[in-house]
Amino acid sequence: MGLLSELPIVQAPMAGGPSTPxxxxxxxxxxxxxxxxxGYLSVDGLREAVATTRRLSPAPFGVNLFVPxxxxxxxxxxxxxxxxxxxxxxxxxxLGEPRWEDDSYDxxxxxxxxxxxxxxxxxxxxxxxxxIERLHRADVKVAVCVTSVLEAQLAVAAGTDLLVVQGSExxxxxxxxxNLAANERPLLSVLGEIRDSGGDVPxxxxxxxxxxxxxxxxxxxxxxxxxxxxxxxxxxxxxxxxAHRQALLDERYPDTILTRAYSGRFARGLANQxxxxxxxxxxxxxxxxxxxxxxxxxxxTRAGDTSVPNLWAGTGWRHVAAEPAATIIHRIAAGIRxxxx
Length: 341
Fold this sequence. Notes:
eight-stranded parallel sheet; TIM Barrel; alpha/beta
């Protein structure tokens, strides 16, 4: 399989707000490959996002879906809720219901198959071989996000067309599914291990890629393209909250942290007070913890309080710029060419 787009640059699907049809269209117009983030959307919301993106851009694009996780331990979730109660009282809201659900996985699969999108990528797990075959029958390509050789082997065995290889530098949720411990392996190491394992499925590398030099290193390590997310968070076309943008641009926090505090899955974001206070308390329980903390995060975001919400960011976040998506894509592409010349 060759490149998905004119440039070897893919827009990461950033669920929960930052990804918008306008961002997808801008990335596609600049020569990159765009994604609709299907996570957290309703089924109708996903259908509408696909239709709106098609109205804005004639270019092929992908949709990202979450593979359902195993339920967490209710007693551990209840114990975490006790730890969060002072935060809820301070913000004047009730904690959310820590429920398990599958993000309408089957219904969203129906949407992507029926709308014949170009590509579906999967995060938090590997779809079954039957699901991949069904998508192939609908002329839909499949990518699986992986963080290790084992996960890559499982995805290849199931029939994936592409591997999205994620390093520990990536902002937002880690895609681990064979081992749910925090992934500390840097992207270039994981790419090299998968490449050397003998697989021949094309790889897209993601994690901490902010500059052309970053991208060139990943391409030289064997990837056919790079996937960028944090670099686009402050683009005007993104749906990133004002609080999140300001925290990034003002460099309000000194570093990032890998934590389960917000969702019950390890994710990388700016090390604000909530993340530091609750990092060691949150159990492995996604999406129960996500629903539990959601009212806290929403209330704080509305109030412009950056000490509480999840401020997802990769390790290269200090390179974030408030520039149009096309400018960002073109700068990274130019940096790749310069590095290779």
